[in-house]
Amino acid sequence: NTMRNTFGVLTNRMTIEDVLDMYKGEDAMFYGNPLNITDEEIKDMIEYFELLEEYENCAELKELLNAKNFADLDMFLDKLASKNGITQI
Question: Residue 45 burial by CB count (10 A; 0-12/13-18/19+): exposed, middle or buried?
Fold first, then answer.
């Protein structure tokens, strides 16, 4: 299913090519774009796995969401520093 395919790619359990190989002759489906997943899509996936009571998957996705948010903040601060310079204290 689409959620499991995306979960597999996001958690490095499989590659996009692995998923495509599983669906030879069919359209491989993902939930969102696993290479550019949004926070909202990750939250939707967490809700999906909560409904199935697959809490270990939820925990992994929450960790991924936190890591993604820290990376986004780091990239934002780096871009801001590059544009405006860095003040030394």
Answer: buried
